Amino acid sequence: MEQRQSTKEDYRRRIEAVVRYIDEHLNTDFDLDELAEIACFSRWHFQHIMHAWLGEPVWTHVMRRRAETAATLLRQTELTVSEIAWEVGYDAPSSLTKAFRLFYNISPMEYRNNKNVIIMNTLNVNENVILKAPKIQSIEPKQTIYVELTGKYSSLDFGGTWSRLWQFVKENKLFSAGIEHIAFYFDNPRVTEASRLRTHICLTVRKPAEAKGEINVKTIEVGKYAKFLYQGPYSNLSAVYDTIYSRWLPESGCTLKDIPWFEKYINNPNNTSPEKLKTEIYIPVE
Fold this sequence. Notes:
Layout: H1 2-24, H2 32-39, H3 43-54, H4 58-76, H5 81-87, H6 93-104, H7 108-113, E1 135-139, E2 142-150, H8 158-171, E3 181-185, E4 198-204, E5 216-220, E6 223-231, H9 237-252, E7 261-265, E8 278-285
Antiparallel strand pairs: 1-6, 2-4, 2-5, 3-4, 3-7, 6-8, 7-8
Helix pairs in contact: 1-2, 4-6
């Protein structure tokens, strides 16, 4: 049983490596042999394994991620459609338009110009959400241990996952002062189906750590972030993000950096009332 679980986690890590590579290189031409080599699978087995794990063929996954990224760029940047096409790996706007229509039944230009068109979920801008201007600050590298979960953000087992991470800290003698509870979010719930949303639930650790089983190790990317402090129930976070992107971002003069955003949770929801919960939201900017 242990060997079977170990093999499963090994496969998962190898597939995660390919998914990360695809997200980080959307503007390149992918070669199947290259992707198979990253996963350390043969070309033939790679396609079957990726299809089984992702629920879609690898090339469909690439096209979907390009369309989802384009949808976000169309609403959150001033890049032209031609520039966005290049950013996500198409050499001509017509190629992006064809792929975009396939997934969303609308052209990129129509989606940009008609703000009433919602691809999936509606905006949730709450007039009662009050956010102070963020602090723009640079983040130093931090090592984290994490578990990747997939599914609707609000339905994930954050508490149970952090319990397993804390057990890993205890078993591997990783405890030190200043451990932080962090979650990385990789997909835009406005354009990605809820069942495909990816989250890394993390603890920061200062002592050297090695991946084992479902638990992986990564370092928070160095860079500049807009840090918002929100106080209130987690159930309002969707409205908080919509407020950030619809109000703050257009007037900020900042450009979003194409890396995941993350949240840091300041207090414990098990002994803190929802209205007093504090969440730091880190939006990567350039």
